[in-house]
Amino acid sequence: MSRYARNDSRRAATAFLTPSAHTRVNLSLKLVLSSDPRLLCVTRSAVERLAAVFGFAEEECCAITLAVHEALANIIRHAYQGRPDGPVELTCRGLENGLEFTLVDRGQPLDPARVCARPLDAVEVGGLGTHIIRQVMDRVDYEQRPGANQVRLVKYLKGTR
Predict the structure, then answer these.
(1) What is the per-residue pLDDT across 120-154, written as a single tens digit (0 to 9) for each?
(2) Is 108 in contact with 100 (CB distance < 8 Å)?
(3) What count of other Cβ atoms lies within 10 Å of the Cβ of residue 59?
(4) 101 in helix, strand or coil?
(5) Angle, nearest 10°, between helix axes 40-54 and 58-74?
(6) Strand boundaries in 2-159, DSSP class E
(7) Which of 28, 36, 73, 144 has a 20 to 30 A CA-CA distance from 108?
(8) Which domains does the chain have, with CATH numbers?
(9) Residues 88-125: pLDDT tens digits?
(10) Burial class of residue 61, CB neighbours in 10 A (0-12, 13-18, 19+)
(11) Mean pLDDT score of the chain, rounded to an integer?
């Protein structure tokens, strides 16, 4: 199937499946996975499809997917130091006017003093994940709970905030 045919079928399915405002709050998806980087493609696919079904424009779906991917990649890299066996829970929940993504890990706690995006004019590879997440998402919250770290990302539909 060509890329154009896939996009046409995706648009048709999305138009058919886009929920009304009163049913959005019932949409949810929970993925329990290991911190194996090979699973990033699975989460990207799930997040992108959920955002599309929820009614986000294609460009927003890509941006949301990138933000969730960066948050998960940061968990793999920093909380688990690249170990592929750490548990991660990704919960996607529909809100009346947006989507909420909650990522929970049991790795090393985040040092809030180190959570700052590097200057954009600094010439180096990497380090833009935090910047991307904050630019794309409308809310970004981090919480340390006993034995777990939680990142909450929220994106609102345009014109509903």
Answers:
(1) 565 455 567 889 999 999 999 999 989 999 999 99
(2) no
(3) 8
(4) strand
(5) 150
(6) 28-34, 87-95, 98-105, 139-145, 148-156
(7) 28
(8) 3-156 (3.30.565.10)
(9) 999 999 999 999 999 999 999 977 666 555 555 654 55
(10) buried
(11) 84
User: Tokens 């991917």 belong to which residue?
Assistant: 69
Backbone angles phi, psi at 149, to 5 degrees: -115, 145
26-53 average pLDDT score: 95
Do the bridges between strand 87-95 and strand 139-145 make them parallel or antiparallel, or are there none, so unpaired?
A: unpaired
Residue 137 sits at the vertex; the CA angle it makes with 135 and 139, to the nearest 5 degrees, is 115
What's the pTM? 0.81
CB 54 within 8 A of CB 24: yes
Distance CA 47, CA 45 (A): 6
In angstroms, the CA 35 to CA 82 distance is: 8
* 138: number of Cβ within 10 Å: 11
Tokens 């919960």 correspond to: 91
Identity at 143, one-letter amino acid code: E
Q: Which residue has the higher pLDDT, 12 or 104?
A: 104
HSE-CB at 7 with a 13 A cutoff on CA atoms is 6
Q: What is the predicted pLDDT for the residue at 75? A: 96
